[in-house]
Design a protein that fits this description.
Elements (H helix, E strand, L loop, with lengths): L20 E4 L2 E4 L4 E8 L7 E9 L12 E6 L5 E7 L10 E11 L2 E2 L3 E7 L20
Parallel strand pairs: 1-8, 2-9
Antiparallel strand pairs: 1-3, 3-6, 4-5, 4-7, 7-9
Length: about 140
């Protein structure tokens, strides 16, 4: 764009606004808890809503058996620095050990990705079977 004042240089173009960095942290919950909660944070607040897509990926924990998978788009409203995502847990009565899955962030709008993956750990709270005990079912024989 030409200068409106002949003989004067054009004013410098202002730098683009600094985008907040979006990060997610690992989380842990006991299997009998209803949810496992992840916190998503911005390093600075924004004057615009910040959007980011999310989705779960199986690890040793399996969707539909250990947790309900989630996916969608999270909005962190302008002026806020945190938001949470909750993943429903599915309790069972089996001693199956601790399990984990991953929550992944992608496709940021009005922000940029920092730490874009987090591990969700589900702690097993079922007692192990008693060693040496056996269960015998009655057998019915027909002559």
């Amino acid at each position: 764009m030409p200068s409106t004042n002949p003989g004067w240089p054009n004013p410098p173009t202002p730098p683009p606004p600094t985008l907040p960095t979006i990060s997610i942290s690992d989380s842990t919950a006991v299997e009998s808890d209803p949810f496992l909660t992840f916190t998503i944070t911005l390093n600075i607040t924004s004057e615009q809503d910040v959007l980011v897509d999310y989705g779960t990926l199986d690890g040793t924990a399996v969707a539909g058996m250990d947790y309900q998978p989630i996916s969608g788009t999270l909005m962190i409203p302008a002026g806020q620095a945190t938001a949470v995502l909750t993943v429903p847990l599915l309790n069972n009565d089996m001693d199956d050990g601790d399990r984990s899955f991953t929550l992944v962030l992608s496709n940021p709008v009005n922000g940029e990705l920092g730490n874009d993956t987090a591990v969700g750990t589900i702690l097993d709270d079922d007692p192990p079977p008693v060693p040496g005990w056996r269960v015998y079912l009655p057998a019915i024989w027909k002559p």
